[in-house]
Design brief:
The protein is α+β, with helices and mostly antiparallel strands and about 325 residues long. The chain has ten helices and ten strands. The strands form two sheets. The protein has a six-stranded mixed beta sheet, sandwiched between helices. A four-stranded mixed beta sheet has the order 1-4-2-3. Helices cover about 35% and strands about 25% of the residues. Bound molecules: adenosine-5'-diphosphate (ADP) and magnesium ion (MG).
C-alpha cells in the first residue's frame, strides 16, 4: 500500500493552475470553491455518477473512465445549450494506485482542456470504484434549452449517428473481445455535443441528450412538453459500421433503444429547417431530421410503408 496522503494525491494528480481567476477566485484547497457568474448569465449545474461494473466494465482502462466521467456530464450541459466552465470531481477508489491515477487524470484532463473546463474542487474517498462529476456552465439568462418546449408541428432532429455505443457494449458482453478503435471510442469516449448545443440556443424549442436510448429519452421530452411524436425509421442515422456489420433489424433496435450515444435530440419549428442545417451540418457530428411532433400523445415509430412498428417485436424490453 502506498503512503501518499489525501492532499498529496490531490496535488499530484488533480491540482492544475486555475486559468480564469476572475471567474474562480477560490478553487482547490479551501472548504468550497467560489464561482463568479458573468452578469446577465445563469449558472447551469449537473451531476453524474459512474459506478464500476454498472456504467463501465470492471477493469476498464483508467484513461477511459476519466474521459467518460467528464464526457457524460458535459453532454448534460450541451443539452441545455450551456457553455462549460468548471467541474468538481468526487472519486472513490479501493486503494491508492499511482499508475491508475496518472492514467485516470490524463483522460479526465484531456477532455477538460479541450472544452476549457477547470477542475475547481472535489473529494476523495476509499471504497468501490465510482466517479461523480459536477459540471457547471453558463447560459444567457432565460436561454436554456429545456425539455418542455416542444410544440405541435415542430421537426425532431438528432445529431450524429445512433446505436454505435450499444453495438460496442453488445460486442464487449458477447465476445469479451477487444473492440476496434472506432467502436471503442463510441462507447468509452463519447463526444459531448457542446458546439451543437451552443448553436441551438434560440433555435431549438426543446432538447435532451440521449443517454438511455432515443425512444426513452425522446419520450421524456415529449412527456415534459405534453405532446407526442411520429418518427420514421428509414431516417434513423446509422453509421457505416452499423449498416455493414449488424443485421438491419438489430441496427434499428440499437438506434432506437440502446443507450450511451450521448447525441442530442431536439425540436425546432418547420420554418427553421434551413437555419438548423446551416448551423449544424458544418459540425463534425452533422444532423438528421427524424420526424415531427404531434398533438396525439405517445411515441409512434413508422416503417418505410408508414405502418406502425411494434418495438416489442424488435425485441425491445422496457424496464
Ligand atoms: P473538506 O474536508 O473540507 O471537504 P478535503 O480535505 O476533502 O476538504 O479537500 C481539500 C480540497 O481539495 C478541497 O478544496 C476539495 O475541493 C479539493 N479536492 C478534494 N478531492 C479532489 C479531487 N479529486 N479533485 C480536485 N479537487 C479535490
Ligand atoms: Mg471542509
Amino acid at each position: 500500500m502506498n503512503t501518499l496522503h489525501e492532499f498529496d494525491i490531490i496535488e499530484k494528480f488533480f491540482m492544475r493552475p486555475v486559468k480564469n481567476r476572475a471567474r474562480f477566485p477560490l478553487s482547490i484547497g479551501d472548504d468550497a470553491a467560489l464561482i463568479s457568474v458573468p452578469e446577465g448569465y445563469e449558472l447551469v449545474t449537473s451531476i453524474d455518477t459512474l459506478v464500476s461494473g454498472t456504467h463501465f466494465p470492471e477493469g476498464s482502462a483508467p484513461y477511459d473512465i476519466g474521459y467518460k466521467s467528464l464526457a457524460v456530464s458535459l453532454s448534460d450541459l450541451a443539452a441545455m445549450g450551456a457553455e462549460p466552465a468548471a467541474v468538481l470531481l468526487a472519486l472513490t477508489f479501493p486503494e491508492v494506485d499511482q499508475a491508475w491515477l496518472t492514467e485516470f487524470s490524463a483522460g479526465f484532463f484531456h477532455l477538460a482542456e479541450q472544452y476549457s473546463v477547470e477542475l475547481i474542487g472535489g473529494n476523495l474517498t476509499r471504497g468501490s470504484l465510482s466517479v461523480s462529476t459536477v459540471v457547471n456552465g453558463w447560459i444567457p439568462s432565460g436561454k436554456a434549452l429545456r425539455r418542455s418546449g416542444a410544440q405541435v408541428g415542430d421537426d425532431i432532429y438528432v445529431t450524429g449517428t445512433l446505436g454505435d455505443a450499444g453495438f460496442a457494449l453488445r460486442q464487449l458482453q458477447e465476445k469479451h473481445s477487444v473492440l476496434p478503435p472506432e467502436l471503442h471510442e463510441r462507447f468509452f469516449r463519447p463526444c459531448p455535443r457542446v458546439q451543437a448545443g451552443l448553436a441551438l440556443r434560440g433555435k431549438a424549442t426543446a432538447a435532451i441528450d440521449i443517454s438511455d436510448g432515443l425512444a426513452a429519452d425522446l419520450a421524456k421530452m415529449l412527456v415534459a412538453s405534453g405532446v407526442g411524436a411520429d418518427l420514421h425509421i428509414e431516417r434513423l442515422p446509422l453509421s457505416e459500421r452499423l449498416q455493414h456489420q449488424c443485421p438491419h433489424e438489430l441496427a434499428i433496435l440499437l438506434a432506437l433503444t440502446a443507450g450511451e450515444d450521448y447525441e442530442l435530440c431536439f425540436t425546432a419549428p418547420a420554418q427553421s429547417r434551413q437555419a438548423i442545417q446551416a448551423l449544424l451540418a458544418p459540425l463534425s457530428c452533422g444532423v438528421h431530421r427524424l420526424g415531427v411532433v404531434s398533438a396525439q400523445l405517445g411515441l409512434r415509430v413508422l416503417d418505410s410503408e408508414r405502418k406502425l412498428l411494434d418495438l416489442m417485436t424488435l425485441g425491445y424490453q422496457h424496464f
